[in-house]
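Q: What residues go here?
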């Protein structure tokens, strides 16, 4: 009797944990404790494969892999939990043809068929209690799959918006200095203020989407132009140059710069649970302002700029981790060598050959 109670109790705990984790993930801010660990585990596996085969082709599969792993975890826990319950009493499930108690593998099959197909009648629950529990087993399967589907389908739309924000930032420039120089009209870069006003609500919305759909953390693009982590870090570096490296912040109101920074802060906070698992490569180097001086911008002395940016080192390391999570190095965000392009368009480009993306963790 005691063994039956313990076995049934274990099953109830497993089922309750699975449903609790699903409800937390789907309806409460952030991922449930089991879902978060599953996501991180799959993310580490994906990073290992990316580093081993030195390819970015597997990056688009990371998000799908996390979704499938989470769904498999919830389903597996239900299956195991109900198997414990229907194994707690020897005669809980009978074989329809022989009216003999089902063995363990038959009970596992009975639970699976009940969760997925409502059963086909070859195995039957015995007694009113287990008949009612069979109904609950079937209902739990429908609930988990329905809730998971309702949660995961909007993720596709959120991933699309994530790429759209990244491409918007990329359209402003391909490195922090380039963003400022492209908007420079000979007096200031005040036109960036309008783009900042447009980006603020998009960044805030994207941050809330990451909070609502934590699986979105693992949806990455293999293309540099569509990498949200790298481009948001690049935008923040441009803000640092405007605020600390250029006189009068390039003509953009300080309140606008601070608003964009706060929007980026909120975005980074939502990624904090996974960023702490990303290996740091040390403080990112402080960029030189020489190329902007060459372009005619009123850059401050390098020493003054470096002192001001030094107070932002912890923040810049978080941004570096955010880019590394998507497989990009700091050199992809702010190349060490920059020059003004010798072409009609106003651009600041890397002096070295095009930097090839590498797999990093």
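A:
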């Amino acid at each position: 009797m005691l063994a039956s109670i313990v076995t049934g109790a274990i099953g109830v705990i497993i089922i309750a944990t699975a449903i609790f984790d699903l409800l937390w993930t789907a309806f409460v801010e952030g991922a449930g404790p089991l879902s978060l660990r599953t996501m991180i585990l799959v993310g580490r596996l994906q990073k290992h494969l990316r580093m081993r085969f030195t390819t970015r082709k597997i990056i688009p599969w990371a998000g799908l892999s996390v979704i499938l792993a989470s769904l498999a975890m919830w389903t597996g826990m239900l299956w195991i939990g109900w198997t414990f319950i229907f194994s707690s009493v020897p005669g809980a499930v009978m074989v329809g043809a022989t009216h003999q108690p089902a063995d363990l593998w038959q009970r596992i099959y009975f639970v699976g068929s009940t969760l997925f197909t409502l059963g086909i009648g070859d195995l039957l629950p015995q007694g009113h209690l287990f008949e009612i529990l069979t109904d609950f087993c079937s209902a739990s399967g429908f609930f988990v799959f329905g809730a998971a589907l309702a949660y995961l389908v909007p993720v596709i739309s959120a991933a699309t918006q994530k790429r759209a924000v990244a491409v918007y930032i990329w359209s402003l420039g391909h490195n922090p200095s380039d963003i400022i120089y492209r908007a420079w009209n000979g007096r200031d870069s005040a036109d960036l203020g309008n783009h900042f006003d447009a980006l603020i609500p998009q960044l805030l919305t994207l941050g809330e989407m990451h909070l609502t759909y934590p699986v979105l953390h693992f949806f990455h693009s293999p293309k540099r132009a569509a990498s949200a982590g790298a481009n948001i870090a690049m935008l923040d570096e441009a803000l640092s140059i405007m605020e600390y490296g250029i006189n009068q912040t390039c003509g953009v109101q300080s309140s606008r710069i601070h608003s964009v920074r706060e929007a980026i802060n909120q975005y980074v906070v939502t990624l904090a649970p996974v960023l702490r698992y990303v290996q740091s490569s040390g403080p990112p180097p402080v960029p030189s302002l020489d190329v902007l001086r060459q372009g005619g911008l009123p850059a401050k002395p390098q020493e003054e700029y470096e002192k001001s940016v030094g107070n932002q080192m912890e923040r810049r390391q978080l941004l570096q981790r955010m880019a590394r999570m998507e497989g990009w190095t700091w050199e992809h965000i702010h190349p060490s060598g920059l020059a003004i392009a010798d072409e009609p368009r106003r651009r600041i480009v890397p002096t070295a050959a095009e930097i090839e993306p590498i797999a990093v963790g």
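A: Context that may help when evaluating the design: The chain has 13 helices and four strands. The chain has two domains: 2-148, 155-350.
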